[in-house]
Amino acid sequence: MSHPADLSSLPAMIPQKGDVTVVIETPKGSRNKYAYDPDMAAFRLKFVLPEGTSFPYDFGFIPSTLGEDGDPLDVLLLLDQPTPVGCVIGARLIGAIEARQKEEGHDWARNDRLIAVATHARSHAHLQRLDDLRPGMVDEICAFFTYYNHMNGKEFEPGRRRGPKGAQKLVTAGCAAYLDRGSQP
Protein backbone atom coordinates (compact mmCIF):
# COMPACT_ATOMS: atom_id res chain seq x y z
CA MET A 1 0.00 0.00 0.00
CA SER A 2 1.33 3.43 -0.91
CA HIS A 3 2.02 6.00 1.76
CA PRO A 4 0.37 9.37 0.92
CA ALA A 5 3.81 10.99 0.67
CA ASP A 6 5.31 8.12 -1.35
CA LEU A 7 7.38 9.80 -4.06
CA SER A 8 7.88 6.50 -5.88
CA SER A 9 4.18 6.43 -6.85
CA LEU A 10 4.02 9.90 -8.46
CA PRO A 11 3.06 9.87 -12.16
CA ALA A 12 5.99 8.91 -14.39
CA MET A 13 4.95 11.27 -17.18
CA ILE A 14 3.90 14.90 -17.39
CA PRO A 15 1.12 14.54 -19.99
CA GLN A 16 0.94 18.17 -21.13
CA LYS A 17 4.58 18.19 -22.24
CA GLY A 18 5.47 14.54 -22.75
CA ASP A 19 8.28 14.96 -20.22
CA VAL A 20 9.14 12.52 -17.45
CA THR A 21 9.03 13.14 -13.72
CA VAL A 22 12.37 12.77 -11.95
CA VAL A 23 12.85 12.50 -8.18
CA ILE A 24 16.38 13.51 -7.17
CA GLU A 25 18.11 11.09 -4.82
CA THR A 26 21.70 12.35 -5.07
CA PRO A 27 22.73 15.88 -6.07
CA LYS A 28 25.52 16.69 -8.50
CA GLY A 29 28.86 16.93 -6.69
CA SER A 30 27.80 14.76 -3.75
CA ARG A 31 29.97 11.94 -2.40
CA ASN A 32 26.97 10.70 -0.44
CA LYS A 33 24.72 8.28 -2.34
CA TYR A 34 21.13 8.51 -1.12
CA ALA A 35 18.29 6.12 -1.95
CA TYR A 36 14.59 6.65 -1.53
CA ASP A 37 12.87 4.19 0.84
CA PRO A 38 9.16 4.10 -0.08
CA ASP A 39 8.25 2.15 3.08
CA MET A 40 9.60 5.00 5.21
CA ALA A 41 8.74 7.77 2.68
CA ALA A 42 12.25 9.04 3.39
CA PHE A 43 15.72 9.15 1.88
CA ARG A 44 18.44 6.97 3.38
CA LEU A 45 22.19 7.35 3.13
CA LYS A 46 23.18 4.28 1.12
CA PHE A 47 26.97 4.76 1.09
CA VAL A 48 29.77 7.32 0.66
CA LEU A 49 31.90 7.41 -2.49
CA PRO A 50 35.69 7.32 -2.12
CA GLU A 51 37.63 10.55 -1.66
CA GLY A 52 37.97 12.44 -4.95
CA THR A 53 34.82 10.90 -6.44
CA SER A 54 31.43 12.56 -6.72
CA PHE A 55 28.29 12.35 -8.81
CA PRO A 56 28.85 14.19 -12.11
CA TYR A 57 25.19 15.27 -12.38
CA ASP A 58 22.00 14.99 -10.33
CA PHE A 59 20.94 11.34 -10.06
CA GLY A 60 17.45 10.08 -9.38
CA PHE A 61 14.61 7.91 -10.55
CA ILE A 62 11.42 8.02 -12.56
CA PRO A 63 8.49 7.23 -10.23
CA SER A 64 5.87 4.63 -11.14
CA THR A 65 8.42 2.64 -13.14
CA LEU A 66 10.16 -0.64 -12.44
CA GLY A 67 13.40 -1.91 -13.94
CA GLU A 68 14.61 -5.48 -14.17
CA ASP A 69 16.70 -4.87 -11.03
CA GLY A 70 13.46 -4.33 -9.06
CA ASP A 71 14.00 -0.58 -8.57
CA PRO A 72 12.52 2.42 -10.37
CA LEU A 73 14.38 3.45 -13.55
CA ASP A 74 17.58 5.44 -12.91
CA VAL A 75 18.09 8.89 -14.43
CA LEU A 76 21.12 11.13 -14.70
CA LEU A 77 19.71 14.68 -14.91
CA LEU A 78 21.47 17.59 -16.60
CA LEU A 79 20.70 20.90 -14.91
CA ASP A 80 22.63 24.10 -14.27
CA GLN A 81 23.03 23.69 -10.51
CA PRO A 82 22.70 20.75 -8.10
CA THR A 83 19.22 20.27 -6.69
CA PRO A 84 18.34 19.07 -3.19
CA VAL A 85 17.53 15.49 -2.32
CA GLY A 86 13.81 14.86 -2.84
CA CYS A 87 13.27 17.61 -5.42
CA VAL A 88 10.74 16.61 -8.11
CA ILE A 89 11.66 17.87 -11.58
CA GLY A 90 10.17 17.62 -15.07
CA ALA A 91 12.69 16.51 -17.68
CA ARG A 92 13.12 15.70 -21.37
CA LEU A 93 14.75 12.36 -22.19
CA ILE A 94 17.74 12.67 -24.52
CA GLY A 95 18.86 9.06 -24.44
CA ALA A 96 19.85 6.02 -22.45
CA ILE A 97 22.78 3.76 -21.78
CA GLU A 98 21.62 0.18 -21.70
CA ALA A 99 23.58 -1.61 -19.01
CA ARG A 100 23.67 -4.70 -16.90
CA GLN A 101 24.79 -5.08 -13.31
CA LYS A 102 25.77 -8.01 -11.15
CA GLU A 103 26.14 -8.33 -7.42
CA GLU A 104 28.26 -11.13 -6.01
CA GLY A 105 26.20 -14.31 -5.78
CA HIS A 106 23.46 -12.96 -8.08
CA ASP A 107 22.71 -13.15 -11.79
CA TRP A 108 23.18 -10.27 -14.20
CA ALA A 109 20.22 -7.86 -14.34
CA ARG A 110 19.51 -4.92 -16.64
CA ASN A 111 20.11 -1.61 -14.89
CA ASP A 112 19.94 1.07 -17.58
CA ARG A 113 20.87 4.71 -17.09
CA LEU A 114 18.49 7.19 -18.67
CA ILE A 115 19.86 10.64 -19.42
CA ALA A 116 17.56 13.66 -19.36
CA VAL A 117 17.66 17.45 -19.40
CA ALA A 118 15.63 19.30 -16.78
CA THR A 119 12.76 21.30 -18.25
CA HIS A 120 14.09 24.45 -16.60
CA ALA A 121 17.75 23.96 -17.60
CA ARG A 122 19.38 26.94 -19.29
CA SER A 123 22.88 25.76 -20.16
CA HIS A 124 21.65 22.36 -21.40
CA ALA A 125 18.40 23.54 -23.02
CA HIS A 126 19.75 22.96 -26.54
CA LEU A 127 20.42 19.26 -25.95
CA GLN A 128 17.98 16.95 -27.72
CA ARG A 129 19.93 13.67 -27.96
CA LEU A 130 23.12 12.03 -26.69
CA ASP A 131 24.96 13.08 -29.86
CA ASP A 132 24.51 16.73 -28.77
CA LEU A 133 26.68 16.15 -25.67
CA ARG A 134 30.34 17.13 -25.85
CA PRO A 135 32.65 14.44 -27.26
CA GLY A 136 33.58 11.81 -24.69
CA MET A 137 30.91 12.78 -22.14
CA VAL A 138 28.89 9.56 -22.44
CA ASP A 139 32.13 7.57 -22.13
CA GLU A 140 32.92 9.48 -18.92
CA ILE A 141 29.43 8.75 -17.56
CA CYS A 142 29.89 5.04 -18.33
CA ALA A 143 33.31 5.07 -16.64
CA PHE A 144 31.84 6.76 -13.54
CA PHE A 145 29.10 4.15 -13.14
CA THR A 146 31.55 1.30 -13.78
CA TYR A 147 33.91 2.61 -11.07
CA TYR A 148 31.09 3.53 -8.69
CA ASN A 149 29.67 0.01 -8.85
CA HIS A 150 33.09 -1.63 -8.59
CA MET A 151 33.75 0.31 -5.37
CA ASN A 152 30.51 -1.17 -4.00
CA GLY A 153 31.32 -4.78 -4.90
CA LYS A 154 29.23 -4.88 -8.08
CA GLU A 155 30.05 -5.34 -11.73
CA PHE A 156 28.57 -2.87 -14.22
CA GLU A 157 28.74 -3.25 -17.98
CA PRO A 158 27.50 -0.41 -20.18
CA GLY A 159 26.12 -1.53 -23.53
CA ARG A 160 24.17 0.00 -26.37
CA ARG A 161 23.34 3.70 -26.37
CA ARG A 162 19.84 4.72 -27.32
CA GLY A 163 18.34 8.00 -28.44
CA PRO A 164 15.27 9.78 -27.05
CA LYS A 165 12.79 7.36 -28.66
CA GLY A 166 14.67 4.35 -27.29
CA ALA A 167 14.77 5.96 -23.84
CA GLN A 168 11.03 6.59 -24.04
CA LYS A 169 10.46 2.90 -24.88
CA LEU A 170 12.41 1.95 -21.73
CA VAL A 171 10.15 4.24 -19.66
CA THR A 172 7.02 2.79 -21.27
CA ALA A 173 8.22 -0.74 -20.44
CA GLY A 174 9.13 0.39 -16.90
CA CYS A 175 5.63 1.83 -16.40
CA ALA A 176 4.06 -1.43 -17.61
CA ALA A 177 6.26 -3.47 -15.24
CA TYR A 178 5.27 -1.18 -12.35
CA LEU A 179 1.57 -1.64 -13.12
CA ASP A 180 2.02 -5.41 -13.47
CA ARG A 181 3.67 -5.62 -10.07
CA GLY A 182 0.85 -3.60 -8.51
CA SER A 183 -1.79 -5.92 -9.92
CA GLN A 184 -0.17 -9.06 -8.50
CA PRO A 185 -1.27 -10.35 -5.09
Describe this structure in words.
The protein is α+β, with helices and mostly antiparallel strands and 185 residues long. It has a single domain (7-180), classed as Inorganic Pyrophosphatase. It contains two helices and ten strands. The strands form two sheets. It has a five-stranded mixed beta barrel with strand order 2-5-6-9-7. It has a two-stranded antiparallel sheet with strand order 3-4. Strand 1 and strand 2 form a beta hairpin. The longest helix has 20 residues, at 164-183. It is globular. The relative contact order is 0.18. The mean pLDDT is 93.
Quick overview:
With 185 residues, the protein is of the alpha+beta class.
What's the helix and strand layout?
Blueprint: E1 13-14, E2 19-26, E3 32-37, E4 42-48, E5 58-62, E6 73-78, E7 88-103, E8 109-110, E9 113-118, H1 137-150, E10 154-162, H2 164-183
Parallel strand pairs: 6-9
Antiparallel strand pairs: 1-2, 2-5, 2-7, 3-4, 5-6, 7-8, 7-9, 7-10
Return the average pLDDT rounded to an integer.
93
**CATH overall fold name:** Inorganic Pyrophosphatase
Low-confidence stretches: none
Q: Whole-number radius of gyration? A: 15 Å
Tell me the CATH architecture: Alpha-Beta Complex
Shape: globular
Query: For the record, what CATH class applies?
Result: Alpha Beta
User: Given the helix and strand composition, which structural class is it?
Assistant: alpha+beta
Widest beta sheet: strand line-up = 2-5-6-9-7
- Helix amount: 10-25%
Q: Order of helices and strands, N to C?
A: EEEEEEEEEHEH
Identify the CATH homologous superfamily.
Answer: Inorganic pyrophosphatase
* DSSP helical segment count: 2
Residue share in β-strands = 35-45%
Q: Number of DSSP strands?
A: 10
End-to-end gap: 12 Å
Largest sheet: 5 strands, mixed, barrel
Estimate nothing, just give the exact number of structural domains. 1
